[in-house]
Amino acid sequence: MTQDTGGISGERLRTIIQRIEKLEEDKAGITDDIKEVYAEAKGVGFDVKIIRQIVRLRKIELEKRREADELLELYKAAIGMEA
Question: CB–CB of 81/73 below 8 Å?
């Protein structure tokens, strides 16, 4: 049972909370699915750490990625690391 209190619609709030809870459940399921795909990749011999890096890099715009790569190379050179 819901009620309106202090200008807040109890029914609307309950509906929003239920939607969030459903999305959290969906997210947990998707997280499990992603873990399974990574496990599959590992099972066939792929390096999961490298796959995760590629997935992360693909989310970054090309120009931003190039800038980050250039800055990384500059920093590595500054401390004497080979490229």
Answer: no
